[in-house]
Design brief:
Pathway: Glycan biosynthesis; glycogen biosynthesis
Number of helices: 19
CATH topology of the largest domain: Rossmann fold
Function: Synthesizes alpha-1,4-glucan chains using ADP-glucose.
Distance between the termini: 9 Å
Pfam family, one: Glyco_transf_5
Number of domains: 2
Helix content: 25-40%
Largest sheet: 9 strands, mixed
Binding site for ADP-alpha-D-glucose: 15
CATH class of the largest domain: Alpha Beta
Family: Belongs to the glycosyltransferase 1 family. Bacterial/plant glycogen synthase subfamily.
Bound molecules: alpha-D-glucopyranose
Number of strands: 18
Radius of gyration: 23 Å
Oligomer: single chain
CATH superfamily of the largest domain: Glycogen Phosphorylase B
C-alpha cells in the first residue's frame, strides 16, 4: 500500500504545534506495519540548513496557480528511514515563519496543487491514498477530483482528511476560486466550499475527501454541536457517515524517561523515586525555592484561548497563595504573556514564567513537575497530557476532546485512574480539583500509585496506527 501524507509541518523539520509531532510519529509507526507512507511538506526557509544541505533534487516543473504558472522543485530526504518530499518555491516558502502571512491563501492553494502535480515526478510512487491534514492541505481532494479526472493513473487515488483543529479553517475571499484554484463558480455554493462570503479550505476537505478522521473519539462527537463546531457543525453532521475519531499517540522512543538525554536523572517504573531529582533540578534552574515537598505544577502550552488560560488567570492569586509552585513555558497572545510575566514578579518564589519556547526546558518540566495542568476550552487530542503520563507527571485536565479520552479521573477508593479532571469551563471547579490533587499528593502511597498508573498507560502509536492501516485498507 502506498500512502502520500500531506502536511504543513512535521518534526524534525518544522514545528509550530502538535500536528508536527503526529506527521512524524504516525508515518513512522505505519512504516513499521509495512506500509509505504511518505510525507510531503513545503520547503520553508526556516528549516535548518543541516537538513536543507542534504536534500536531493528530484525534478522541477511548473504548477498552475489560476492563469499563472509557478516554479516547483521536488526535493527528497530520508530521515530515520522515513521518506520526506519537499516542495521548493522560494517565493512562497522562503520566509522566517511557516504561516501568518497575508498571502497564506495563495501559498497553500499552490501547495495543494503542487502536491498533486508532483506525484508524476516521484519515480514510481503513485499513491493509493493521499492523507491530508488540516486546512493547509484540505483543498487536495477537490483539486484531485476536478483537475486530474482525465488522468488515468490518478483515477484510483482516494483521499483521507484528518482534522487536527477545526478552529483554523483557511477561509479566503471568493476571488481565489478562479484566480488561484482554477475552479468554476459552481463550487461557490453552501453544499460545496462557500463559507459565509468566502471560500473555505476546511470545507473542501470535509466535503470532498473519502474519509474524515479527527484526533480523538470525543472530539469527533463534539464537533457535531454548536459549542465545538466552529460554524461547521451542520457540514460535519451531514458527513457523519464518513467520520471517525482515532486518538493520537506519542513517539515512545522520543519520549521516554528511561533514555531521555535531556533530563537530569533518567528513571522508569522501577526507579520512580529518581523522578524527584528532576524536580530539584527544575527548581534550581528556575530559581525557585528548592523543596521536594512543595507540589510543582507544570504548564507547557501555546498561550492561546483554546488552552483555557483564562481559567488560570481568574484564580491565579488564590492558586499562588497555596503551597505550590507553578512553572509555565510557552508563547502566544500578548495578554497572557503579560499576565504571567506580571505575576511572576509579584510571586517570584511561586511562579516561574518562561515566555519563550525551548525544547530542553519543556522536557525538564515534563520530568520534573509533579502535576501538569491543561484546562483546555477545547482539545482535539492534546499531546502534553500524554507526555506527562509517560513521565509519571499527573495530568489535571478539563473533560473535553482527547483530554477526556486519555485522562481517567483518580478514584481514591480503588486506586484506579491516572489523573484528575473537571467538567465545566469554570475556574473554581478547576481550583477545587487542583486542591484535591494536592490533598492526594500529600499521601505518598496514593500518589505513587497514581504516578505508576500514568506510566503504565499505553499512549504509544501502535494501536492507533493499526486503526489507520485498517482505514487505508477499507478504501482499496
Ligand atoms: C492540534 C490540536 C491538538 C492535537 C494536535 C495533533 O494542535 O489542537 O489537540 O493534539 O493538533 O493532532
Amino acid at each position: 500500500m502506498k500512502i502520500l501524507y500531506a502536511a504543513s509541518e512535521a518534526y524534525p523539520f518544522i514545528k509550530t504545534g502538535g500536528l508536527a509531532d503526529v506527521s512524524y510519529a504516525l508515518p513512522k509507526a505505519l512504516r513499521k506495519l509495512g506500509i509505504d507512507i511518505r510525507i510531503i511538506l513545503p520547503k520553508y526557509g526556516n528549516i535548518s540548513s543541516n537538513f536543507k544541505n542534504k536534500m536531493k533534487n528530484m525534478n522541477s516543473y511548473n504548477v498552475p496557480v489560476g492563469w499563472r504558472n509557478q516554479y516547483c522543485g521536488l526535493q527528497y530526504l530520508e530521515y530515520e528511514g522515513i521518506p520526506f518530499y519537499f516542495i521548493d518555491n522560494e517565493y512562497y516558502f522562503k520566509r522566517t515563519e511557516a504561516y501568518g502571512f497575508y498571502d497564506d491563501g495563495e501559498r497553500f492553494s499552490y501547495f495543494c496543487r503542487a502536491v498533486l502535480e508532483s506525484i508524476e515526478h516521484m519515480d514510481n510512487f503513485i499513491p493509493d491514498i493521499i492523507h491530508c491534514n488540516d486546512w493547509h492541505t484540505a483543498m487536495i481532494p477537490l483539486l484531485l477530483k476536478e483537475h486530474f479526472k482525465s488522468k488515468q493513473q490518478f483515477s484510483d487515488i482516494r483521499t483521507i482528511f484528518t482534522i487536527h483543529n477545526l478552529k483554523y479553517q483557511g477561509v479566503f475571499s471568493k476571488s481565489i476560486l478562479g484566480e488561484l484554484l482554477d475552479l468554476s463558480e459552481e463550487y461557490f455554493s453552501e453544499d460545496s466550499i462557500k463559507f459565509h462570503d468566502g471560500v473555505s479550505f476546511m470545507k473542501a476537505g470535509i466535503n470532498y475527501s473519502d474519509i474524515i478522521t479527527t484526533v480523538s473519539k470525543s472530539y469527533a462527537e463534539e464537533i457535531k454541536y454548536d459549542f465545538y463546531g466552529e460554524g461547521l457543525q451542520g457540514v460535519i453532521r451531514e458527513n457523519d457517515y464518513k467520520l471517525q475519531g482515532i486518538v493520537n499517540g506519542i513517539d515512545y522512543e522520543l519520549f521516554n524517561p528511561k533514555t531521555d538525554k535531556i533530563i537530569k536523572c533518567k528513571y522508569d517504573l522501577y526507579s520512580i523515586k529518581d523522578k524527584a531529582k528532576n524536580k530539584i533540578d527544575l527548581q534550581k534552574i528556575l530559581n525557585l525555592p528548592v523543596n521536594k515537598n512543595t507540589p510543582v505544577i507544570g504548564i507547557v502550552s501555546r498561550l492561546v484561548k483554546q488552552k483555557g488560560l483564562e481559567l488560570i488567570a481568574f484564580i491565579i492569586e488564590e492558586l499562588l497563595s497555596m503551597d505550590v509552585q507553578l512553572v509555565l513555558l510557552g508563547t502566544g497572545e500578548e495578554d497572557y504573556e503579560d499576565l504571567f510575566k506580571y505575576y511572576s514578579t509579584i510571586y517570584p518564589s511561586k511562579l516561574s514564567s518562561n515566555i519563550f519556547f525551548d525544547n530542553v526546558l519543556a522536557e525538564k518540566i515534563y520530568a520534573g513537575a509533579d502535576m501538569f495542568l491543561m484546562p483546555s476550552l477545547f482539545e482535539p487530542c492534546g499531546i502534553s497530557q500524554l507526555i506527562s503520563l509517560r513521565y509519571g507527571t499527573v495530568p489535571i485536565v478539563r473533560e473535553t476532546g482527547g483530554l477526556k479520552d486519555t485522562v481517567i479521573p483518580y478514584n481514591e477508593y480503588t486506586d484506579e485512574g491516572n489523573g484528575f479532571s473537571f467538567k465545566n469551563y469554570n475556574a473554581h471547579e478547576m481550583l477545587d480539583v487542583i486542591r484535591y490533587a494536592i490533598e492526594i499528593y500529600r499521601n505518598k502511597n496514593k500518589w505513587k500509585n497514581l504516578m505508576i498508573n500514568g506510566m503504565k498507560t499505553d499512549s504509544s502509536w501502535e494501536n492507533s496506527a493499526k486503526r489507520y492501516s485498517e482505514l487505508y485498507s477499507s478504501l482499496k
